[in-house]
């Protein structure tokens, strides 16, 4: 959706998108810090405080990832099931076009070619075709899997006989672990505890990649403002942005240009 005041300013994230991302980020940071405190025994807070914060953030993280984010994804597109599925595939699933962008990114790292646009806005539909870095599309799948597994292992670590609506979930998880744990010379509980710790380290690694590497480039700092505050993006800032024009018979010519820092980008020539 374009701004009435400036047609080059579009809505990149809705209020619900920004709410979900903020809660997700806060919950994940608190869970990592308190989890490592519980495991390593750091002295900056008491065990009981850390455990209480940990247990508050668990349902917040799960509610955002399993309820709010799916709702945002599938309510963002118009049409029926097939249209919504196509929207999901284009925006969140690593596909052939993302593979091409990844190849270009790797070549750019070695000084061959330009860094490809990973934000693509379609003026015909008035919506983004994609707005995620291709590596993020890979991380999203891995993160979703990791959140499920760490939640499962966390159930047992919280309470060995925990049940939900009368269903002995913790006992079922321990029984499932008994099928695998002996192969590693462990008990089911030991395996689940180790898995929980390793998955915590995975989230630390993902945080470093997501924030410390992919978004260390000043040209993508504008996305921090969009995801946490404004929700808007100015498409006239052409770094990593490609605009699909309305008339497919007269595609715009694109040329490389360099700013004062010699960072390659794409601009659209009318």
Blueprint (SSEs and pairs):
Elements: E1 9-11, H1 15-40, H2 47-75, H3 81-92, H4 96-109, E2 119-122, E3 127-130, H5 134-158, H6 169-178, H7 188-214, H8 222-230, E4 232-234, E5 241-244, E6 253-258, E7 264-269
Parallel strand pairs: 2-5
Antiparallel strand pairs: 1-4, 2-3, 6-7
Helix pairs in contact: 1-2, 1-7, 1-8, 5-6, 5-7, 6-7
Transmembrane segments: 21-40, 52-74, 138-158, 197-214
InterPro entries: Di-haem_cyt_TM
Protein name: Methanophenazine hydrogenase cytochrome b subunit
Structural class: mainly alpha
Number of helices: 8
Q: What is the residue-averaged pLDDT?
A: 86
- Summarize the amount of helix as a percent range: 55-70%
How can the largest sheet be summarized?
Answer: 3 strands, mixed
The whole-angstrom Rg is 22 Å
CATH C-level category: Mainly Alpha
Number of strands: 7
CATH topology: Fumarate Reductase Cytochrome B subunit
Q: Which strands sit side by side, in order, in the main sheet?
A: 3-2-5
The residue ranges in which pLDDT falls below 50 over 5 or more consecutive positions are 250-270
Could you give me the name of the CATH homologous superfamily?
Transmembrane di-heme cytochromes, Chain C
Shape type: elongated
Work out the count of structural domains.
Answer: 1
Question: Which CATH architecture?
Answer: Up-down Bundle
Transmembrane segments: 21-40, 52-74, 138-158, 197-214
GO molecular function, one term: Methanosarcina-phenazine hydrogenase activity
Organism: Methanosarcina horonobensis HB-1 = JCM 15518
GO biological process, one term: respiratory electron transport chain
């Amino acid at each position: 959706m374009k701004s009435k005041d400036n047609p080059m300013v579009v809505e990149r994230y809705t209020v619900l998108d920004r709410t979900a991302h903020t809660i997700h980020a806060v919950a994940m940071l608190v869970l990592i810090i308190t989890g490592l405190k519980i495991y390593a025994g750091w002295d900056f807070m008491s065990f009981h405080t850390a455990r209480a914060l940990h247990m508050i953030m668990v349902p917040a993280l799960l509610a955002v990832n399993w309820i709010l984010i799916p709702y945002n994804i599938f309510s963002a597109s118009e049409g029926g099931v097939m249209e919504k599925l196509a929207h999901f595939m284009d925006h969140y699933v690593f596909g052939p076009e993302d593979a091409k962008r990844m190849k270009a990114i790797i070549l750019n790292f070695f000084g061959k070619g330009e860094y490809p646009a990973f934000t693509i806005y379609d003026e015909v539909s008035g919506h983004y075709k994609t707005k995620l870095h291709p590596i993020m599309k890979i991380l999203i799948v891995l993160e979703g899997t990791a959140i499920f597994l760490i939640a499962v292992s966390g159930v047992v670590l919280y309470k060995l006989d925990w049940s939900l609506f009368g269903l002995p979930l913790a006992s079922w998880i321990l029984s499932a672990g008994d099928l695998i744990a002996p192969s590693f010379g462990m008990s089911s509980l030991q395996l689940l505890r180790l898995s929980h710790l390793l998955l915590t380290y995975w989230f630390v690694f993902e945080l470093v990649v997501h924030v410390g590497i992919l978004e260390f480039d000043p040209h993508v700092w504008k996305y921090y403002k969009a995801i946490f505050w404004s929700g808007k993006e100015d498409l006239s800032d052409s770094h990593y942005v490609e605009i699909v024009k309305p008339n497919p018979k007269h595609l715009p010519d694109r040329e490389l240009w360099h700013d004062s820092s010699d960072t390659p980008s794409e601009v659209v020539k009318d």
